[in-house]
Write a structure and sequence with these properties.
Its cofactor is Zn(2+). By secondary structure, the chain is of the alpha+beta class. Among the domains are: 180 residues, Leucine-rich Repeat Variant, CATH 1.25.10; 255 residues, Zn peptidases (Aminopeptidase, 3-Layer(aba) Sandwich), CATH 3.40.630. A seven-stranded mixed beta sheet has the order 14-15-17-16-18-20-19, sandwiched between helices. It has a six-stranded mixed beta sheet with strand order 3-5-6-8-12-11, covered by helices on one side. The radius of gyration is 37 Å and the shape is globular. It starts with 13 loop residues before the first helix and ends with a helix.
Length: 1073
């Protein structure tokens, strides 16, 4: 430490002695004898206090200046530690007292004021009570008055501004500053750009003034608006933007924008910004900045301000409630559904004009993935009640009530011969053969697309498939789609309406278009759908090529946002024409002159409520809410026709609700082309460019947002081109899998049953919508009718699986499809699995939600996976009866070995599991627990660990075994806690793709999902071996054959496809000859 030379201090002064002592201590000595240095410093502070009590004269001022200079030198080094010691010794208060005393002199010593404020600016950030002390001692007003008197004194003005910046961090001080005219004062200090603006001090002063305006309270923001300073800030920013051509003063330009951002946090500020033409000014300046990458900071801040100030609009629908109405048999006494039924008409969607406007999202061009809904669980959501954390088997209902469920467990209780007869009986009376509807079912025909003349859909025909075997379907039948009463003209030749359907029976052994139509006839929907979508009719063959995650183009989100802002700046360029509207049930397809696309979603699992043409090739799309709900917008499935080949179309789904999406991180939408399908390539493919997901200007009603005000919807936008003229294309959130598809698959599986397979299909219950809920039992038939074999047959451990409780998570059904096909297969692995376990499977827990295009709820308007604690038999029949099955097993002392509920995850990649663990939950919380409380079998980790070793899509690192309060009514937690299943899981499959393993960098497809379902089965074999349930020596290495088995299946499918292509080429050659 270098001690400055002391001047003008009396020779007999004690201060001189102490300063001399410090001067004699060189740097090394001070490091060795820290305590002595502290003592000397403390004595100096004491003398300063004494000095403050004396009458100040010129000699005292000089002495004080010397001491302050020494203190400043001491505090400059030490990385803040010395400042902390200074504050703890009361140094801040001493400086404030000196400041008050100095202010009483007239005129006050400028040099002393400069030194005091420089020290205060250095000390303030380390003193938590700095603002309070400044206000109570009166130092705050001293600094303000000093600034007012020295607006042209840059040397003194700068430290005063720096101290005021620290003062204003205290909210009360910030308000006090506003009352004392500091807001107006700052606008006198902030200077416009001039050619002579080269003074670095002036530059720093302007920056400090802007930083003082940045932490703008609501009161000060109002003062700024009332003073007309929004216009001033915009003019200053425009001035700096035009003149700072070399971008040397970025911080000043940013400071101006930050001040605007804070003022526009209040409604009054946003209004003033709009009235001052702020949208146009920031839009134009930002557009000019776009080519310069280094100006992104300014562009992003400008974008944030414009998005926040964009006037909030309500969705272009009459009500945010679903377009479909289903009257419940009884309405719950409380909850969102009760609130929905009790609302007066017209009050469900109110644009919130309060000042509780949530901060608009910044431009997320460089964002990382935000998995905040499950990653890093909030401590306040973790279960801390140890009584709830210890599983306790609680059947809930007496055995007498549960005996009715004996009929679903014939293999456990009845004589085998009777059970065998029951198999045949149930197979003929299963829920698949449900009562067929008398309404006509419109089957896809060649009359497909809308033409300019009429609204009948038309595909150019005949559409020949070369040599690929095909079947003729239809004739001159009814049109596919709503024609609003017009009678479509049949093709002159009559045969023109014949649709050539590719025969994909070898590639899709579980798909049959004719059988699918039969299943549709027995499916009941709220809108009484009578149409069949092409993809569900033709089927889907997984593509053989890889579909990598889409690489995000830099600036794409910003570009989309600016195009949205152009709607406000150039309103005359916007068409705003509705072309499809489910709220007009008699005629949802609105007639036009053929310049617009045509949309349709009136088929099973379809979801699109409204389509609005905003520009010639741009459409805003509104999704339908779940039935008996006013939110849950995520799943979409709709048809588009009337497109132009090669034209880039933009689609904006404008009422998404989640704050982030995998669409920002490589996920694409799915498209199905009918022209491709009838050409022998029936498949969903990932498509879409310039995909992004961001907050928009459509306001969410607080009624739909759980009481939260100021919420906005999010847009998911993508662009695409079409390759075929007169095509019919479908877009979907994920690979569709309808209820009728499930029934068709189950029927085909049943037809494939061999005598060695025990397969029974039961109708567990009837849903609210009148649809059956299938329950499957799969195991191996006993080797013989001997008592030993029958006993072994009955005593096999149970595995309980379920899926599709959330309709929008269609990937869960594809995983379940893989599980079912594997269980019904003929491989040694499948045989061993059936011989080792009895499988009870509910493949679709929410048929009504699936049928009606819901994303999360059933017809009751409730999330069924939050009803497991106390399900209502009338409102939640599938959950009530599934839980009853498990309760019956508890009474029978046949608790399942594994329970797994298949789900899909919209914000994470890979496949992973959620389980339940007392120990891991306690570790994640702050509760104390004894060693006895933490005793737990770690077997719950075995199955996920096995999957991580054999399934390339599975990620052990994404698994969690923490029990949360918010999930206490889910299947996983209730089955673990009440039924006593230690291995109770939710298996989540990504809707996007993988970031590890074999599939890293690829989007997930149906092949990978079905493979995951098969690998789950294989993991059960290894679990069986590891848990020692049976000593089957022949199972020791069977699970290692899974990859070989999968490769063989793929090779067979590929050879079949090659054979088809060879046949087609031969046929084409013959035709040419």
């Amino acid at each position: 430490v270098i001690i400055p030379k002391i001047v003008n201090v009396p020779s007999n002064s004690r201060v001189l002695m102490l300063l001399g002592q410090l001067e004699r201590m060189n740097g090394e000595a001070m490091l060795k004898d820290v305590e002595t240095a502290r003592q000397v410093t403390a004595k100096i502070l004491h003398l300063i206090q004494t000095q403050g009590k004396r009458k100040h004269n010129s000699r005292d001022v000089q002495t004080t200046l010397n001491i302050l200079c020494i203190v400043s030198e001491l505090l400059t080094v030490g990385r803040g530690r010395r400042v902390g010691v200074f504050v703890s010794k009361g140094g801040t208060g001493v400086l404030f007292q000196l400041l008050i005393n100095a202010s009483k002199e007239f005129p006050p010593s400028e040099e002393l004021m400069l030194q005091l404020h420089s020290l205060l600016a250095k000390v303030g950030p380390k003193d938590r009570k700095f603002g309070v002390k400044a206000r109570l001692t009166g130092a705050l007003n001293v600094t303000i008055n000093l600034m007012k008197q020295n607006l042209l004194n840059n040397k003194l003005l700068l430290p005063c501004l720096q101290v005021l910046r620290v003062y204003s961090s205290n909210l009360v001080n910030a308000v006090s500053l506003g009352k004392n005219g500091v807001v107006e004062l700052m606008f006198k200090i902030v200077a416009p750009y001039t050619v002579d603006f080269v003074n670095e001090v002036q530059n720093v002063i302007t920056l400090s003034s802007l930083s003082l305006l940045s932490p703008c309270t609501e009161t000060n923001a109002r003062r700024a608006v009332d003073g007309g300073f929004v216009t001033v800030l915009l003019a200053l920013y425009l001035d700096w933007h035009r003149n700072d051509t070399r971008h040397r003063h970025m911080l000043i330009r940013k400071g101006l924008l930050v001040s605007l951002r804070n003022i526009t946090n209040i409604k009054l500020g946003r209004k003033a910004f709009i009235e001052a033409d702020g949208m146009r000014i920031l839009y134009n300046t930002s557009t000019e900045c776009l080519p310069v990458r280094t100006l992104d900071l300014l562009i992003n801040t400008s974008s944030l301000i414009m998005r926040k100030c964009f006037p909030k609009n309500r969705l272009p629908v009459p009500t945010i409630k679903s377009a479909f109405h289903f009257q419940l048999p009884n309405v719950p006494a409380a909850g969102p559904v009760a609130q929905l039924y009790n609302q007066p008409p017209g009050v469900d969607d109110v644009v919130d004009e309060s000042d509780d406007n949530e901060e608009a999202d910044a431009d997320t061009e460089n964002d990382t993935e935000n998995d905040d809904d499950d990653k890093d669980l909030l401590n306040d959501d973790i279960e801390t009640d140890l009584n709830k954390l210890h599983p306790k088997r609680n059947p809930g209902r007496p055995l007498e009530e549960l005996r009715v469920y004996e009929r679903f467990f014939l293999e456990l209780s009845e004589d085998f011969q009777v059970a065998k007869m029951s198999i045949l009986t149930n197979r003929n009376s299963s829920c698949i053969a449900s009562t067929q509807s008398s309404r006509p079912i419109i089957v896809p025909t060649a009359q497909a697309l809308s033409s300019p003349v009429n609204s009948t859909r038309h595909i150019q025909s005949p559409l020949l498939l070369g040599g690929i075997a095909s079947r003729r379907v239809g004739g001159g039948g009814s049109n596919f789609g709503s024609d609003c009463g017009s009678e479509g003209t049949e093709d002159e030749g009559g045969e023109g309406a014949v649709l050539e359907v590719p025969d994909t029976a070898l590639l899709l052994p579980l798909h049959d278009p004719d059988l699918y139509v039969e299943m549709v006839k027995g499916t009941r929907s709220v809108p009484e759908y009578a149409e069949v979508a092409y993809p569900d009719y033709f089927g889907h063959v997984a593509p053989t090529f890889k579909e990598p995650l889409l690489e995000r183009v830099y600036g794409v989100q910003r570009s989309k946002i600016y195009q949205d802002i152009e709607r406000l700046i150039h309103p005359n360029d916007i068409l705003d024409k509705a072309v499809y509207d489910l709220d007009i049930p008699s005629c949802p397809v609105i007639e036009d002159n053929g310049e617009s696309l045509k949309f349709n979603s009136q088929f099973e699992s379809g979801n699109l409520r409204k389509a609005v043409q905003v520009r010639k090739y741009e459409y805003d799309l509104v999704l339908n809410s779940d039935v008996n709900s006013n939110h849950y917008h995520q799943w979409f499935y709709f048809e588009v026709s009337g497109m132009r080949v090669g034209t880039v179309y933009r689609f904006n789904i404008i009422n998404c609700e989640k704050s982030n999406s995998q669409f920002n991180y490589g996920m694409q939408v799915l498209m199905y082309s009918v022209q491709e399908a009838i050409s022998g390539r029936p498949r969903w493919v990932r498509t879409g460019a310039d995909i992004c997901y961001y907050k928009n200007h459509f306001a969410r009603s607080s009624i739909a947002a759980g009481g939260q005000k100021g919420k906005s919807y999010y847009s998911m936008t993508f662009s695409t081109t079409f390759s075929h003229k007169d095509d019919v294309c479908y877009f979907a959130y994920h690979y569709p899998y309808t209820y009728s598809t499930l029934k068709m698959h189950l029927a085909k599986l049943e037809a494939l049953r061999t005598p060695q397979i025990y397969l029974r299909q039961d109708n567990l219950c009837e849903t609210l919508g009148g649809n059956g809920c299938p329950l499957l039992t799969i195991t191996a038939m006993p080797e013989s009718n001997s008592n030993d074999h029958i006993c072994q047959f009955r005593n096999r451990p149970l595995i309980f699986l379920s899926a599709r409780v959330h309709p929008g998570e269609t990937n869960a059904s594809w995983v379940m499809k893989g599980t079912l096909e594997f269980l019904m297969g003929t491989s040694p692995l499948a045989v061993s699995l059936r011989e080792g376990f009895i499988f009870k499977i509910v493949p679709m827990l929410n048929p009504d939600g699936v049928i009606n295009g819901n994303h999360r709820c059933s017809l009751s308007g409730e999330d069924l996976n939050r009803q497991w604690l106390n399900p209502n038999p009338e409102l939640h029949p599938t959950i009530y009866h599934t839980k009853s099955l498990l309760q019956y097993l508890v009474h029978m002392q046949r608790t399942p070995l594994v329970f797994c509920d298949y789900h899909g995850h919209s914000r994470k990649k890979n496949v992973f599991m959620y389980g339940c663990s007392v120990k891991e939950t306690v570790w994640q919380s702050n509760i104390t627990a004894s060693s006895s409380d933490l005793q737990e079998d770690l077997g719950y980790r075995t199955l996920p660990k096995i999957l991580s070793q054999i399934a390339p899509a599975f990620s052990m690192g994404s698994c969690s075994f923490v029990v949360e309060r918010s999930k206490e009514s889910t299947a996983r937690v209730v089955v673990w806690r009440e039924i006593g299943v230690q291995r109770s899981y939710t298996m989540e499959s990504t809707l996007c793709g993988c970031d590890q393993g074999k599939y890293k960098g690829l989007q997930i497809g149906t092949r990978e999902l079905e493979e995951m379902g098969a690998q789950f089965c294989v993991s059960l074999l290894r679990l069986k071996r590891l848990t020692g349930l049976r000593n089957h020596q022949h199972l020791l290495d069977l699970e290692n054959d899974i990859m070989t088995h999968t490769k063989v299946v793929r090779l067979v499918k590929w050879r079949i496809l090659q054979s088809h292509l060879h046949t087609q080429l031969m046929h084409e050659g013959t035709h040419m000859l």
